[in-house]
Model the fold of this input.
Amino acid sequence: MTWAILTALIGHWRRNPVQLFTLLAGLALGTALWSGVQAINAEARASYDAAAATLGEARYAQITSRSGEPIAQATYIALLRAGWVVSPVVEGKLGPVRLVGIDPLTAPAGVGPLPQGRGGDLAAFLSARGQIFARAATLGTLPATGADLVAAPQVAPNTALADIGLVQRLLHRPDQIDRLLVAPDQPLTRRPLAEIAPDLTLTEASEANDVAKLTDSFHLNLTAFGLLSFAVGLFIVHGAIGLAFEQRRPMMRTLRALGVPLGRLIALVGLELAGLALLAGALGVALGYVVAASLLPDVAATLRGLYGAEVSGELALRPAWWLSGLAMALGGTAVAAGGALWSLARMPLLASGQPRAWAMARRQRGQAVLAVALMALAGGLALWGHGLLIGFVMLGALLIGGALALPPLLALGLRWGAARARGPLAQWFWADTQQQLPGLSLALMALLLAMAANVGVSTMVSSFRMTFTAFLDQRLASELYVTASDEAQARAVTDLVAGRVRAVLPILSIDRTIAGLPARVYGARDDATYRDNWRFLRAAPDVWDRLARGEGVLINEQLYRRAHLDLGANVTVAPGLALPVLGIYGDYGNPEGQVVLTEALFRKLFPTVSALRFGLRLDPAKTGALRAELHDKAGLPDSATVDQAAIKALSLGIFERTFAVTTALNILTLAVAGFAMMMSLLTLAVLRLPQLAPVWALGLTRARLALLELVRAVVLAALTGALALPLGLALAWALLSVVNVEAFGWLLPMYLFPLEYLRLGGLALLAAALAAAWPAWRLSRLPPTQLLGVFRNER
Amino acid sequence: MLLDLRTVTKTYPGTEAPVLRAVSFSVAAGDRLALTGESGSGKSTLLHLIGGLDTADSGVVAIEGSDLTPMHDAGRAALRRGTVGVIFQQFNLIPSLTVAANIAFQARLAGRHDPDRARALALRLGLGDHLHKYPEQLSGGQQQRVAIARTLAPRPKLVLADEPTGNLDEATADRVMDLMCELVAETGAGLIMATHSERLAGRMMRRLHLRSGQLA
Ligand SMILES: Nc1ncnc2c1ncn2[C@@H]1O[C@H](COP(=O)(O)OP(=O)(O)OP(=O)(O)O)[C@@H](O)[C@H]1O
Ligand SMILES: [Mg+2]
Done:
């Protein structure tokens, strides 16, 4: 019997290949979108982890010198003698590659390319010729050194590892050490660091991992997008399964009528679906891989440019994401099939189309109630919630609530249209659209989420860009930035430029702990540059005059939020000196707190600090000439002078790349949602014949009916788009004002981009029209006998 | 002549034997004739050709002198809107519209909607209490009465009925038939009704019998 039932179930697909295709494609596309975004995320994260693990940057405390000078071999030996368990590291650029030298004998476990327990390699690593470990791609870019090259995929991208002795020789830095890794277990008897080497400082493990902290901002963007794509995928899968059940309803009924036990039928359908889900999931993961691989070069470029983090440009097949892709396909199928199996279990044996419509109406009411509840939850969390997790819960509630609210709202809109329809055709059009709504609602929900994601993410990224460029204009107001190597050179620079530039702005800074948090204190010259360019989030009246008189300080937003220092609060900048906060400024992309004092006060408080960096104000056309002169007369290397225009161009270029990735993902989501809609329309086309045949028999051409189908899809997409806009804006607000603040400590102002939304709306309408085009074309070509069959056969 | 069929032949694609072979007959205004024949003899096929729902392979199907066969989709659709009304055995109604909207639908499509007439028809057919219901809330007999009202509302010249009472019990079938014949007679339209029932066929003015695709 089992075999007979399976033959019947599978026979349905053989007779309706288009339905099978839509089911598989729906599942595969949902999975592909999700796993594509996940793949990009996983790959980037894995690259950081590799970087952190190989260099021990994240896991171990480090000792460095305060001045940035190398640590002498003798100091290292003195530390060892005093009982410290430390391991030396030296690093530098060899060609384009970051070359890192470690000492395999003293390095803490897990640092370096040599796996534990393969001691045989150690001899070769330490041999006179030496070995250099790197990824195959990196090895190709290394200049010839005479050392053996060993491919090691676990090393961070664009990084090479070798024995410290070899690296010192290759970099021509004998006996020099850049930093010392501190093993986690240290003898209690060791002498304090300050006694042995007062110019060295110890950095704790957690503070060393800045890269990850900064790039998290970009990843949050992608994660939010992953969440959205997951929701879109889930709705597509749900829609595909629901339709597959709806189509086979009569057959299931016949099987039951023939005496197939319900339990057996459900088990077999479940088995069949699991098989299909696995197949489609595998296809989807493969597709997601292609998507990610084609986007990844850009993602890697974005991260490298933005934060200086190295991300591998090639993609590895990581179990984490392909498993999650398969789980998504299976889980989505299970969730979708759960409801369908439940209704199968309760399906009456005798066919009667009647109760279905009422059941739909009841379900819609339930959905509306749930949607309102979720929206209320999201609103409540926005008002009173705190924490990153709450932020994400709020996002989820907003998304699902919005999606559930769609069908009832659409029904309302259609009822409104129907009430205003005049001609008989128009009336039928609206009434028929209303009746088609339940079958299309899942595809429309996917479209809604895709559009809302588009609006939300592009608003967020664009706002980020606007804020950041405005911020660059504010913070990079000087035309030329110069960094001197020592005080003598600094004096040479100021002497040289005196009288030739409009202003010289020394950049004085010192790291301090402010209100219990690590922060950097700056001394700013009282100059029009600051007054003209800086914008405050909040400021006291006469802020610049009072700052110049030393009556207070400016702080950045991070410090304001983390230390709860509002205007007027007192900040202890030096022992015994507390000054009120006069202004708070936005400081994006920086994890640390900042305090700005006027120059005079700074010099009085920290007389040992002298300025090595300067901002120069001059005619932008003359920066080139001045740079050349600084190079020739003051001996400044080119790398020590930075042209502001160049920095800005670089930053903007990076944003364009970020944009390219988000735009590509956006269009992809929209395309997938459009495809889901097409599949729903195709499957519905068969179910809709009984609705269309009477109208056709009464004297409407098939071409006319097809045109109406097209118009219907566009009308539904337009209504969906009208609802997607507020949802997307709410999403953007949640990302910018809640999630971002919780995650990074700064609030991004939200800008609106009406033209962009208009373009997106146009794209969505186009997608809907394209989605409806094929089913409509098929309808216009439908043989009359098929339409006549409606009147002949039992449904 | 209202309807003229000359040597009409039809073969369904993918089948060998023709369903209709050189069928010829004519119908004048006011004529009411029965179309009989055993199951599969081609009654429905013939009605579909006359209604412009399907096309003949050869021969002439002329309504008021104009041949349907070479017409485009649009021409045949226009014909169905105003001149020829079709009633099927079942599933005639538009599920998404109320009874009242269904009755008015065809007349409005034809641009001949007369609310008074629609209302009168509905009352004559005993549908007064059901005007705001949806088709799925009606019994089979009620649904067929709605279909009759809808077909007759725009005053078609020719009514085609394909076993319109085939799904109804005898008593109900008789009542529906009487009403239909009465109303058709009032409009002076022609009527062709396919039926299996000798009793119903006997109430018509003429009878055509199909046997393996030919008139006997
Ligand atoms: N779409 C089709 N494709 C192929 N053959 C068809 C199609 N529709 C009908 N036929 C065949 O044409 C013949 C005539 O069918 P038709 O429906 O006209 O018969 P009928 O006289 O109306 O029968 P009934 O009394 O059972 O309604 C039958 O043999 C049928 O199998
Ligand atoms: Mg028939």
Q: What stands out?
A: The longest strand of chain B covers residues 3-10.
